[in-house]
């Protein structure tokens, strides 16, 4: 059996799945000041009298690191960055203990200026004096040649608890994001480690000794052990959990939209043949941009509890939430109240709901029912408008080859999957308004926990082979091997598969779930000097796609 | 925090699957290292820098500028349509005021393509900037446009296309034609009889460094632009003046390019040549992007940059000053030069030979134009290519006066169909293209 647990802002949802289906589901209130207690209480309730030895898999998704990031509750972190030519690295300052140092590597991975050992030693002294325990080291183009990061780490090693290197974060180019992501990993490490060690200990006391898997923002899982090097990857795993929970109901060989209607916001994501779309580089939320692999989601500030107002005859919905719906004792009318007035939702206090909608109706000069209907329609319109904007944006992504320009994939979803409390009401309405097949995902209120439970391990490997320099590298994996002049594309893909499998198994993947491998990028170039060919550069990125573990999908139907 | 002072649009289309041939300078990875540098710097994450997808130009877009012989599909590949489409996408973004300024980093290049295009010359088949300029004039009704071509090679294609156009000021800075392809672009090449002085060619001696380039920009280009008062400034941003370029002999630098850009303040820049793909392009392009966006570019320096080694000699400085004075004098005399070049109502004839080095075609042209004081004047070009076709192209300029419009139709109607493989009419006021 499998346990999936998702700590959300309001509730912690837990499910127990067997090969027969959902055995048990539990909802406990989340205590934001004590997430550990919430997790523990979730486990205690879901386990009940179940034999812990019958549990084969445990996946946890929490808001621990997200909260730390939002509230800026992070310890002092030392950052040492070496930039070389380009934009002034002080623009990417992460805080007090940030040092831009000498040393430069170019785009081909060639050293252009050396590291200054004395300079690093001086900084080490200052950091130590300031009580810094964790340090991030990032150099520009370190994904092409990490030697400067490694050398700086060697100089620092004795004096600090743990040192995070930029080239381990991702194989993608983006120096500012590499700095931000390395900093995040260093900054949440302590919190993440103590939290999960406590969880592991408590679960062991309950007899649950199997390895714990942790959900990442890309909708995949990683083992507790591998999460220690990249705790930042757990940021925003919540929205990912829900989207993964919709996958069992998604159409094969088709594009689909996932809408998760919450209290304050609606999350929007897309599936292509049951696989979620990913951010090209990593999580971004406003000004915060990282290299953390993530599902491509966006949210609109509209949900069941959005505050309704009328200004000069115009209805506005959200983006704020003043409390629950009036039907549930809240202070201001909300879309949920409209659903109650329309007789769709038979929960809460209908009199209170009517009272709230009545004030809106008065200002709009409509009857209560017409006003409720109007509010409901407007909500659907706003959510769908944002969704269509996202599709347009996705379809106008720049491409870099003639082939992609002419043959590029166009996202054209024919189906909507809805999650969240009011999903079933919205599904019907949207289908009627937009003539798009729309279904409310069954067990929608615990879809997030189901998504976490069934998510498989994901990972990505980036490789570069340079036959002129005679080397194939995947610096993110600390991999480098000499190659001959005749090294081919096929050789590169084979090396890539081997590395990806190894990485997946180290992250706790089940060998049965290693088939969904996809070549995400492949490029091939000639190196020419003085008009004659000198060799070839191959670049490849392959991934284990986000998706569900085998054998459990059908049980939910 | 980093934020673009000028909202800047970028089209990046490196055409990673297109080359003239595998070891040709104009090959797949020309912009690979530029892309690496731009991505590693996180350029597209900077607020105020927006990446656009290239558009695709249509046959009609090309027909405003070129007589493609025998037709557009025979002269172009998809890559050309996307590259020109990149410039068009940037033009739309700038003209619709989505951004203040824009840079199309596209390839293949275009500035050696002339009005008649029988094929490829100087790595170019169709002219990206010219197609964009004609698109802007038709779509947005812009009247005065200046094109400043800073590629190391004379922008002879653009020069040819706007040769008779007094509303488009074309200025080309390039390595002296006696030492460099295509061997043209001397100060006396000032434009057709109706547009004398609206084409300015500034040849620079081999070994010109940053100092020399910026001298010309400050003392010649900027004052002339100030007098011409263009509605839009376009920069044909070739990057082969760089001190490491394998095809040229100049000593320009990434810092120099960035400074040139911040002085010139082009509304739209379009990439042209530049073949030092590892040592120069990544830094030069980064410098130009930052300068356009109004960001600090002082850190954009080639790893092997040594300004002492790149200093230009005193004799080069003198030569540049002389050329600049000469160009300024021509500019001041432009009205008299036009008066002197002929009487209104006269028919002027010009013979011209064009060699297409990329496709090995030789072309002979005979051009007839009516002298006019009210507009650029309609003209016809009799063009015979070997190997190739014999065609006649008639052009009626966009701002043509009524008389010249009629004269254009007269050219077209009188043309003898038995003499030519094809006869084309480019009617810019009506935005029509006819073939008979």
What's this model, at a glance?
Chain A is an alpha/beta fold and 557 residues long. Chain A contains 14 helices and 27 strands.
Characterise the protein shown here.
The complex is a heterodimer of chains A (557) and B (436). Chain A contains 14 helices and 27 strands. Chain A has 557 residues and is an alpha/beta fold. A six-stranded mixed beta sheet of chain A has the order 3-2-1-4-11-12, with helices on both faces. In chain A, strands 13, 14, 15, 18, 21 and 22 form a six-stranded mixed beta sheet that branches. In chain A, strands 25-24-23-27-26 form a five-stranded antiparallel beta sheet, with helices on one face. In chain A, helix 12 links the parallel strand 21 and strand 22 (437-440). In chain A, helix 1 packs across helix 5 (175-205) and helix 8 (335-341) packs across helix 10 (368-395). Chain A is globular, with a radius of gyration of 25 Å. Chain B folds into two domains: 8-335, Histone deacetylase domain (Arginase, Chain A, 3-Layer(aba) Sandwich); 342-435, no CATH class. The mean pLDDT of chain B is 95. Classes of the chains: A alpha/beta (557), B alpha/beta (436). The interface between A and B is large, with 44 and 50 residues.
CATH architecture of the domain at 77-187 in chain A: 3-Layer(aba) Sandwich
> Based on the structure given, which CATH architecture of the largest domain in chain B is correct?
3-Layer(aba) Sandwich
CATH superfamily of the largest domain in chain B: Histone deacetylase domain
The proportion of residues forming helix of chain B, as a percent range, comes to 25-40%
The number of helical elements of chain B comes to 12
Strand content of chain A: 25-35%
SS field, number of helical segments of chain A: 14
Structural class of chain A: alpha/beta
| Principal-axis shape of chain B | globular
- List the uncertain runs of chain B: none
Main sheet: strand order of chain B: 2-1-4-10-9-6-7-8
Helix content of chain A: 25-40%
Give the largest chain-chain interface (CB within 8 Å). Answer: A-B, 44 and 50 residues
Q: Order of strands in the sheet with the most strands of chain A?
A: 3-2-1-4-11-12
The main pleated sheet of chain B reads as: 8 strands, parallel
CATH topology of the domain at 77-187 in chain A: Dna Topoisomerase Vi A Subunit, Chain: A, domain 2
The end-to-end span of chain B amounts to 60 Å
Regions of chain A with pLDDT < 50 over 5+ consecutive residues? Answer: none
